[in-house]
Protein backbone atom coordinates (compact mmCIF):
# COMPACT_ATOMS: atom_id res chain seq x y z
CA UNK A 1 0.00 0.00 0.00
CA UNK A 2 2.79 2.34 1.01
CA UNK A 3 4.79 1.67 -2.15
CA UNK A 4 1.71 1.99 -4.34
CA UNK A 5 0.62 5.28 -2.75
CA UNK A 6 4.10 6.66 -3.30
CA UNK A 7 4.10 5.59 -6.94
CA UNK A 8 0.80 7.38 -7.53
CA UNK A 9 2.24 10.57 -6.10
CA UNK A 10 5.50 10.14 -7.95
CA UNK A 11 3.83 9.71 -11.31
CA UNK A 12 1.53 12.64 -10.75
CA UNK A 13 -1.56 10.47 -10.88
CA UNK A 14 -3.15 12.32 -8.01
CA UNK A 15 -3.86 16.02 -7.86
CA UNK A 16 -1.52 17.93 -5.56
CA UNK A 17 -2.68 17.95 -1.95
CA UNK A 18 -5.21 15.10 -2.27
CA UNK A 19 -3.10 12.67 -0.29
CA UNK A 20 -2.12 15.16 2.38
CA UNK A 21 -5.74 16.14 2.90
CA UNK A 22 -6.87 12.54 3.23
CA UNK A 23 -4.09 11.75 5.67
CA UNK A 24 -4.35 14.97 7.69
CA UNK A 25 -5.64 13.38 10.91
CA UNK A 26 -2.78 10.87 10.93
CA UNK A 27 0.11 13.27 10.51
CA UNK A 28 2.63 14.84 12.84
CA UNK A 29 3.94 11.82 14.66
CA UNK A 30 7.18 11.13 12.82
CA UNK A 31 10.35 13.12 13.16
CA UNK A 32 11.55 14.16 9.72
CA UNK A 33 15.28 14.40 9.21
CA UNK A 34 16.70 15.99 6.07
CA UNK A 35 20.26 15.27 4.96
CA UNK A 36 21.95 17.18 2.20
CA UNK A 37 25.50 17.81 1.02
CA UNK A 38 27.62 17.81 -2.12
CA UNK A 39 27.67 14.71 -4.37
CA UNK A 40 29.78 11.99 -2.81
CA UNK A 41 29.89 13.68 0.60
CA UNK A 42 29.04 10.35 2.20
CA UNK A 43 25.33 10.92 2.83
CA UNK A 44 24.05 7.47 1.89
CA UNK A 45 26.78 5.73 3.84
CA UNK A 46 25.98 7.89 6.85
CA UNK A 47 22.26 7.14 6.52
CA UNK A 48 23.13 3.45 6.54
CA UNK A 49 25.14 3.84 9.74
CA UNK A 50 22.28 5.84 11.30
CA UNK A 51 19.77 3.14 10.33
CA UNK A 52 21.77 0.59 12.32
CA UNK A 53 21.76 2.77 15.41
CA UNK A 54 18.09 3.81 15.08
CA UNK A 55 17.07 0.17 14.67
CA UNK A 56 18.91 -0.70 17.86
CA UNK A 57 16.91 2.08 19.54
CA UNK A 58 13.75 0.25 18.51
CA UNK A 59 12.66 2.65 15.81
CA UNK A 60 10.86 2.13 12.52
CA UNK A 61 12.52 4.21 9.84
CA UNK A 62 11.59 5.29 6.33
CA UNK A 63 14.12 6.76 3.91
CA UNK A 64 13.40 8.75 0.78
CA UNK A 65 16.36 9.50 -1.44
CA UNK A 66 15.83 12.44 -3.79
CA UNK A 67 18.30 13.18 -6.55
CA UNK A 68 17.16 16.15 -8.60
CA UNK A 69 20.50 16.69 -10.31
CA UNK A 70 20.89 13.27 -11.81
CA UNK A 71 19.35 12.73 -15.27
CA UNK A 72 19.81 8.98 -14.92
CA UNK A 73 18.17 8.30 -11.63
CA UNK A 74 18.25 4.55 -12.23
CA UNK A 75 21.92 4.39 -11.30
CA UNK A 76 21.50 6.49 -8.20
CA UNK A 77 18.55 4.41 -7.08
CA UNK A 78 20.49 1.20 -7.33
CA UNK A 79 23.55 2.71 -5.65
CA UNK A 80 21.57 3.95 -2.65
CA UNK A 81 19.80 0.63 -2.26
CA UNK A 82 23.12 -1.16 -2.27
CA UNK A 83 24.71 1.24 0.21
CA UNK A 84 21.77 0.98 2.58
CA UNK A 85 21.26 -2.65 1.59
CA UNK A 86 22.01 -4.50 4.78
CA UNK A 87 19.41 -2.55 6.79
CA UNK A 88 17.19 -2.02 3.76
CA UNK A 89 16.00 -5.60 4.10
CA UNK A 90 15.06 -5.12 7.78
CA UNK A 91 11.33 -5.31 8.51
CA UNK A 92 11.43 -1.95 10.29
CA UNK A 93 13.07 -0.11 7.41
CA UNK A 94 11.41 1.18 4.25
CA UNK A 95 13.61 2.76 1.59
CA UNK A 96 12.34 4.55 -1.45
CA UNK A 97 14.30 6.44 -4.07
CA UNK A 98 12.43 9.18 -5.84
CA UNK A 99 12.93 8.99 -9.58
CA UNK A 100 12.95 12.58 -10.74
CA UNK A 101 12.88 11.98 -14.46
CA UNK A 102 9.62 12.99 -16.07
CA UNK A 103 8.48 14.32 -12.77
CA UNK A 104 5.24 16.27 -12.80
CA UNK A 105 4.73 19.18 -10.47
CA UNK A 106 7.22 20.43 -7.94
CA UNK A 107 9.72 18.00 -6.58
CA UNK A 108 9.42 19.42 -3.08
CA UNK A 109 5.63 19.08 -3.25
CA UNK A 110 5.84 15.36 -4.03
CA UNK A 111 8.57 14.82 -1.47
CA UNK A 112 6.31 16.41 1.10
CA UNK A 113 3.38 14.19 0.15
CA UNK A 114 5.55 11.08 0.25
CA UNK A 115 6.73 12.10 3.71
CA UNK A 116 3.04 12.45 4.69
CA UNK A 117 2.33 8.91 3.53
CA UNK A 118 5.31 7.60 5.49
CA UNK A 119 4.28 9.60 8.55
CA UNK A 120 0.74 8.23 8.42
CA UNK A 121 2.18 4.72 8.03
CA UNK A 122 3.64 5.10 11.50
CA UNK A 123 7.37 5.42 11.00
CA UNK A 124 9.21 7.03 13.91
CA UNK A 125 11.86 8.72 11.82
CA UNK A 126 11.73 9.67 8.17
CA UNK A 127 15.04 10.48 6.53
CA UNK A 128 15.21 12.49 3.32
CA UNK A 129 18.52 12.34 1.48
CA UNK A 130 19.06 14.91 -1.23
CA UNK A 131 22.12 16.17 -3.11
CA UNK A 132 23.11 19.71 -2.18
CA UNK A 133 23.13 21.36 -5.56
CA UNK A 134 20.83 24.35 -5.39
CA UNK A 135 17.46 25.85 -4.76
CA UNK A 136 15.46 22.63 -5.01
CA UNK A 137 17.39 21.17 -2.05
CA UNK A 138 16.61 24.15 0.09
CA UNK A 139 12.96 23.61 -0.86
CA UNK A 140 13.10 19.90 -0.11
CA UNK A 141 14.87 20.49 3.18
CA UNK A 142 12.03 22.77 4.29
CA UNK A 143 9.93 19.64 4.70
CA UNK A 144 12.27 18.39 7.45
CA UNK A 145 12.06 19.08 11.17
CA UNK A 146 15.82 18.72 11.54
CA UNK A 147 18.22 19.65 8.75
CA UNK A 148 21.63 18.06 8.60
CA UNK A 149 24.30 19.19 6.16
CA UNK A 150 27.08 16.68 5.43
CA UNK A 151 30.50 17.83 4.35
CA UNK A 152 33.49 15.63 3.51
CA UNK A 153 36.91 16.76 4.74
CA UNK A 154 39.53 18.55 2.73
CA UNK A 155 37.34 19.90 -0.01
CA UNK A 156 37.37 23.67 -0.19
CA UNK A 157 34.77 23.45 -2.95
CA UNK A 158 32.54 21.46 -0.69
CA UNK A 159 32.47 24.21 1.89
CA UNK A 160 31.88 26.75 -0.88
CA UNK A 161 28.93 24.72 -2.14
CA UNK A 162 27.45 24.69 1.32
CA UNK A 163 27.82 28.44 1.58
CA UNK A 164 25.36 28.96 -1.23
CA UNK A 165 22.12 28.97 0.70
CA UNK A 166 22.31 25.61 2.42
CA UNK A 167 24.17 26.76 5.51
CA UNK A 168 21.27 29.05 6.38
CA UNK A 169 18.96 26.11 6.88
CA UNK A 170 21.37 23.75 8.66
CA UNK A 171 20.46 22.66 12.19
CA UNK A 172 23.48 20.37 12.40
CA UNK A 173 26.70 20.24 10.43
CA UNK A 174 28.52 16.95 10.09
CA UNK A 175 32.02 16.43 8.81
CA UNK A 176 31.79 12.96 7.29
CA UNK A 177 34.68 10.55 6.67
CA UNK A 178 36.43 11.71 9.83
CA UNK A 179 38.98 8.94 9.25
CA UNK A 180 40.39 10.97 6.35
CA UNK A 181 43.01 13.71 6.81
CA UNK A 182 41.71 17.25 7.06
CA UNK A 183 38.55 16.45 9.03
CA UNK A 184 39.50 18.74 11.90
CA UNK A 185 40.41 21.59 9.56
CA UNK A 186 37.07 21.29 7.77
CA UNK A 187 35.27 21.27 11.12
CA UNK A 188 37.14 24.47 12.06
CA UNK A 189 36.19 26.11 8.74
CA UNK A 190 32.56 25.27 9.32
CA UNK A 191 32.65 26.63 12.85
CA UNK A 192 34.12 29.88 11.54
CA UNK A 193 31.34 30.15 9.00
CA UNK A 194 28.74 29.49 11.66
CA UNK A 195 30.26 32.15 13.82
CA UNK A 196 29.55 34.70 11.10
CA UNK A 197 26.01 33.46 10.81
CA UNK A 198 25.18 33.27 14.49
CA UNK A 199 25.10 37.05 14.79
CA UNK A 200 21.69 37.20 13.12
CA UNK A 201 20.40 33.72 13.98
CA UNK A 202 17.87 33.17 16.74
CA UNK A 203 19.44 31.73 19.90
CA UNK A 204 16.98 28.88 20.54
CA UNK A 205 19.39 26.33 19.10
CA UNK A 206 23.15 26.36 18.69
CA UNK A 207 24.18 24.59 15.50
CA UNK A 208 26.74 21.93 16.43
CA UNK A 209 29.58 20.84 14.17
CA UNK A 210 30.02 17.08 14.57
CA UNK A 211 32.23 14.49 12.96
CA UNK A 212 31.35 11.00 11.84
CA UNK A 213 32.98 8.05 10.22
CA UNK A 214 30.46 5.81 8.55
CA UNK A 215 32.85 2.93 8.06
CA UNK A 216 33.58 2.54 11.79
CA UNK A 217 30.30 4.17 12.95
CA UNK A 218 32.36 6.57 15.10
CA UNK A 219 30.36 9.65 16.06
CA UNK A 220 27.04 8.21 14.91
CA UNK A 221 25.64 7.82 18.43
CA UNK A 222 26.56 11.43 19.29
CA UNK A 223 25.02 12.57 16.03
CA UNK A 224 21.72 10.82 16.72
CA UNK A 225 21.71 12.13 20.28
CA UNK A 226 22.15 15.64 18.95
CA UNK A 227 19.34 15.07 16.43
CA UNK A 228 17.08 13.83 19.23
CA UNK A 229 17.98 16.93 21.22
CA UNK A 230 17.01 19.14 18.31
CA UNK A 231 13.78 17.20 17.87
CA UNK A 232 12.92 18.10 21.45
CA UNK A 233 13.37 21.79 20.68
CA UNK A 234 11.42 21.93 17.41
CA UNK A 235 8.96 19.06 17.93
CA UNK A 236 7.54 17.02 15.07
CA UNK A 237 5.70 17.99 11.92
CA UNK A 238 7.18 21.40 11.21
CA UNK A 239 6.01 21.02 7.61
CA UNK A 240 2.42 20.86 8.87
CA UNK A 241 2.58 24.31 10.48
CA UNK A 242 2.47 26.07 7.14
CA UNK A 243 -0.70 24.22 6.24
CA UNK A 244 -2.54 25.30 9.34
CA UNK A 245 -5.26 27.88 9.08
CA UNK A 246 -4.71 31.24 10.81
CA UNK A 247 -4.69 31.32 14.60
CA UNK A 248 -8.30 32.19 15.35
CA UNK A 249 -9.52 29.27 13.28
CA UNK A 250 -7.10 26.89 15.02
CA UNK A 251 -8.61 27.71 18.39
CA UNK A 252 -11.93 26.33 17.14
CA UNK A 253 -10.48 23.24 15.56
CA UNK A 254 -10.57 20.56 18.25
CA UNK A 255 -9.49 17.83 15.87
CA UNK A 256 -6.23 19.56 15.00
CA UNK A 257 -5.62 20.43 18.63
CA UNK A 258 -6.16 16.87 19.87
CA UNK A 259 -4.01 15.41 17.09
CA UNK A 260 -1.31 17.84 18.04
CA UNK A 261 -1.56 16.95 21.74
CA UNK A 262 -1.36 13.25 20.89
CA UNK A 263 1.80 13.89 18.88
CA UNK A 264 3.56 15.60 21.79
CA UNK A 265 2.77 12.96 24.41
CA UNK A 266 6.02 11.04 24.98
CA UNK A 267 4.44 8.50 27.35
CA UNK A 268 1.64 7.49 24.98
CA UNK A 269 4.11 7.45 22.11
CA UNK A 270 6.54 5.23 23.97
CA UNK A 271 3.74 2.68 24.36
CA UNK A 272 2.80 2.93 20.70
CA UNK A 273 -0.59 4.57 21.33
CA UNK A 274 -1.89 6.54 18.35
CA UNK A 275 -4.84 8.89 18.09
CA UNK A 276 -6.96 8.11 15.04
CA UNK A 277 -10.01 10.27 15.52
CA UNK A 278 -10.92 13.35 17.54
CA UNK A 279 -13.39 16.16 17.97
CA UNK A 280 -14.85 18.36 20.70
CA UNK A 281 -15.12 16.17 23.79
CA UNK A 282 -14.19 12.97 22.00
CA UNK A 283 -11.06 11.07 21.04
CA UNK A 284 -10.23 7.56 19.87
CA UNK A 285 -6.82 5.99 20.34
CA UNK A 286 -5.54 2.69 19.04
CA UNK A 287 -2.85 0.16 19.91
CA UNK A 288 -1.84 -3.27 18.68
CA UNK A 289 -0.62 -5.50 21.50
CA UNK A 290 3.00 -6.50 21.36
CA UNK A 291 5.22 -8.66 23.52
CA UNK A 292 6.20 -5.79 25.83
CA UNK A 293 2.54 -5.07 26.63
CA UNK A 294 1.92 -8.46 28.23
CA UNK A 295 1.96 -9.49 31.89
CA UNK A 296 3.32 -12.70 33.40
CA UNK A 297 0.16 -14.58 32.39
CA UNK A 298 0.73 -13.74 28.75
CA UNK A 299 -2.30 -11.45 28.55
CA UNK A 300 -2.45 -7.68 28.20
CA UNK A 301 -1.16 -5.81 31.25
CA UNK A 302 -3.96 -4.03 33.09
CA UNK A 303 -1.78 -0.94 33.35
CA UNK A 304 -1.64 -0.74 29.59
CA UNK A 305 -5.43 -0.97 29.23
CA UNK A 306 -5.63 1.83 31.77
CA UNK A 307 -3.01 3.86 29.91
CA UNK A 308 -4.90 3.42 26.66
CA UNK A 309 -8.21 4.50 28.19
CA UNK A 310 -6.52 7.29 30.09
CA UNK A 311 -4.93 8.62 26.88
CA UNK A 312 -8.33 8.88 25.19
CA UNK A 313 -9.72 10.47 28.37
CA UNK A 314 -6.91 13.03 28.48
CA UNK A 315 -7.22 13.97 24.83
CA UNK A 316 -11.02 14.26 24.86
CA UNK A 317 -11.06 16.36 28.02
CA UNK A 318 -8.37 18.74 26.69
CA UNK A 319 -10.03 19.15 23.30
CA UNK A 320 -11.62 22.48 24.23
CA UNK A 321 -8.28 24.26 24.42
CA UNK A 322 -8.26 24.65 28.22
CA UNK A 323 -6.00 22.51 30.36
CA UNK A 324 -8.13 19.78 32.00
CA UNK A 325 -6.59 17.95 34.95
CA UNK A 326 -7.71 14.42 35.76
CA UNK A 327 -8.93 14.16 39.36
CA UNK A 328 -10.54 10.72 39.42
CA UNK A 329 -10.81 7.57 37.33
CA UNK A 330 -12.44 4.15 37.64
CA UNK A 331 -11.79 1.17 35.47
CA UNK A 332 -13.40 -2.25 35.12
CA UNK A 333 -11.92 -5.13 33.14
CA UNK A 334 -14.39 -7.34 31.26
CA UNK A 335 -12.00 -9.72 29.58
CA UNK A 336 -8.34 -10.24 28.78
CA UNK A 337 -6.72 -9.10 25.56
CA UNK A 338 -3.91 -11.04 23.88
CA UNK A 339 -0.82 -10.63 21.76
CA UNK A 340 -1.69 -9.19 18.34
CA UNK A 341 -5.10 -7.84 19.41
CA UNK A 342 -5.84 -4.38 18.11
CA UNK A 343 -7.42 -2.33 20.91
CA UNK A 344 -9.44 0.86 20.53
CA UNK A 345 -10.28 3.27 23.32
CA UNK A 346 -13.06 5.71 22.50
CA UNK A 347 -13.75 8.55 24.92
CA UNK A 348 -17.07 10.39 24.96
CA UNK A 349 -18.27 13.22 27.13
CA UNK A 350 -20.96 12.33 29.67
CA UNK A 351 -21.39 15.77 31.19
CA UNK A 352 -19.65 19.10 31.28
CA UNK A 353 -20.07 22.09 33.57
CA UNK A 354 -17.92 25.17 33.97
CA UNK A 355 -15.40 23.48 36.28
CA UNK A 356 -15.92 19.72 35.91
CA UNK A 357 -16.42 17.25 33.09
CA UNK A 358 -17.08 13.51 33.13
CA UNK A 359 -15.97 11.12 30.41
CA UNK A 360 -16.67 7.53 29.60
CA UNK A 361 -14.14 5.44 27.71
CA UNK A 362 -14.92 2.10 26.10
CA UNK A 363 -11.97 -0.11 25.32
CA UNK A 364 -12.84 -2.65 22.66
CA UNK A 365 -11.05 -5.12 20.47
CA UNK A 366 -11.19 -4.48 16.71
CA UNK A 367 -13.94 -7.15 16.39
CA UNK A 368 -16.08 -5.22 18.88
CA UNK A 369 -15.53 -7.35 22.01
CA UNK A 370 -15.55 -5.20 25.14
CA UNK A 371 -12.27 -5.33 27.04
CA UNK A 372 -12.71 -2.58 29.60
CA UNK A 373 -14.84 0.38 30.67
CA UNK A 374 -13.42 3.51 32.20
CA UNK A 375 -14.97 6.63 33.65
CA UNK A 376 -13.06 9.73 34.65
CA UNK A 377 -13.56 13.26 35.89
CA UNK A 378 -11.49 16.32 35.10
CA UNK A 379 -11.16 19.69 36.71
CA UNK A 380 -11.20 22.36 33.99
CA UNK A 381 -8.61 25.03 34.63
CA UNK A 382 -8.77 28.45 33.03
CA UNK A 383 -5.35 27.97 31.48
CA UNK A 384 -5.02 27.96 27.69
CA UNK A 385 -3.24 24.87 26.39
CA UNK A 386 -1.07 26.98 24.10
CA UNK A 387 0.05 29.15 27.01
CA UNK A 388 0.82 26.09 29.15
CA UNK A 389 2.84 24.53 26.34
CA UNK A 390 4.85 27.72 25.82
CA UNK A 391 5.55 27.90 29.56
CA UNK A 392 6.71 24.26 29.64
CA UNK A 393 8.93 24.79 26.60
CA UNK A 394 10.58 27.73 28.33
CA UNK A 395 11.25 25.73 31.47
CA UNK A 396 13.01 22.95 29.59
CA UNK A 397 15.40 25.40 27.92
N1 LIG B 1 36.99 6.82 4.18
C1 LIG B 1 35.68 6.95 4.22
N2 LIG B 1 34.97 6.87 3.08
C2 LIG B 1 33.64 7.02 3.14
C3 LIG B 1 32.97 7.25 4.38
N3 LIG B 1 31.64 7.36 4.13
C4 LIG B 1 31.48 7.23 2.80
N4 LIG B 1 32.69 7.03 2.19
C5 LIG B 1 32.90 6.82 0.73
O1 LIG B 1 32.55 7.98 0.03
C6 LIG B 1 31.93 7.65 -1.22
C7 LIG B 1 30.60 8.36 -1.36
O2 LIG B 1 29.73 7.89 -0.35
P1 LIG B 1 28.14 8.00 -0.46
O3 LIG B 1 27.59 7.58 0.82
O4 LIG B 1 27.66 7.34 -1.69
O5 LIG B 1 27.98 9.56 -0.67
P2 LIG B 1 26.64 10.36 -1.05
O6 LIG B 1 26.79 11.71 -0.47
O7 LIG B 1 25.45 9.61 -0.69
O8 LIG B 1 26.77 10.42 -2.61
P3 LIG B 1 25.62 10.87 -3.68
O9 LIG B 1 24.32 10.32 -3.19
O10 LIG B 1 26.08 10.24 -4.95
O11 LIG B 1 25.66 12.34 -3.70
C8 LIG B 1 31.81 6.14 -1.25
O12 LIG B 1 32.86 5.63 -2.03
C9 LIG B 1 31.99 5.74 0.20
O13 LIG B 1 32.56 4.47 0.35
C10 LIG B 1 33.77 7.32 5.58
O14 LIG B 1 33.27 7.51 6.70
N5 LIG B 1 35.11 7.16 5.44
MG1 LIG C 1 23.71 9.06 -1.84
Annotate the secondary structure layout.
Elements: H1 2-10, H2 18-23, E1 31-37, H3 43-56, E2 61-66, H4 73-83, H5 85-88, E3 93-98, H6 107-120, E4 125-131, H7 135-141, E5 146-151, H8 156-163, E6 172-175, H9 183-198, E7 209-211, H10 220-234, H11 238-241, H12 247-252, H13 254-263, H14 266-271, E8 274-279, E9 282-288, H15 302-317, E10 322-333, E11 342-352, E12 356-365, E13 370-384, H16 385-396
Parallel strand pairs: 1-4, 1-5, 2-3, 2-4, 5-6, 6-7
Antiparallel strand pairs: 8-9, 9-11, 10-13, 11-12, 12-13
Helix pairs in contact: 1-6, 6-7
This protein binds guanosine-5'-triphosphate (GTP) and magnesium ion.
Magnesium ion binds next to helix 3.
